[in-house]
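Pilot study result, target chain (183 residues):
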Amino acid sequence: MPNQGGVVDFTATVNPVLKPTSDRKPMEQIKRNYFGGANFEARTVKDIIAPAKSISNKVSVRAALDQMQAQTTDSSPVIDQCGELLGILSKNKMNRNVGGFGHDPKTEPVEAQIEKGNAYCFEDQTIAEAEQMVLNAKLGEVFVVTREKLLVGTINIEAIVQEKRWRKRLAPPKSRALRAPQS
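Predicted structure:
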């Protein structure tokens, strides 16, 4: 325990990284709506993430296909041993490229089949930003990652629409009495 002339510095014993500073900044506040809920624009993607099942980049094509079959999906995100998103695997592409060219799917590594450059959003982006990205990419679902590009989950357009409907139900009614008089 750090001892400074008989005084124990508890911040250093609990968390040695935590150091008091004289430059304290106020925390950023999320704007609240009438009923106390956060605005749709201020809520973040991590509030509506769905979990994602991923495939390791170290497995064979056969193992990846078996896993996708068990998950009843045609595509799956691929991560490295640290959890970083590398891309996506497509069942059709793997069947065409591996089986179609006579390669053995039991020994063929999945690495060569990873499609890179897929759309994703960050967990700390607002839902409104994610919605715009999903619409611009013309996709129904995108991956959600941390700023270090570690896979967190997925977000789809249905979840965004549902969130918007929920927020709209909580919005205060627009009263005629609150409008400015027109001259």
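One observation from the pilot: Residues 73 and 91 are 8 Å apart (CA to CA). A full batch analysis is planned for the follow-on phase.
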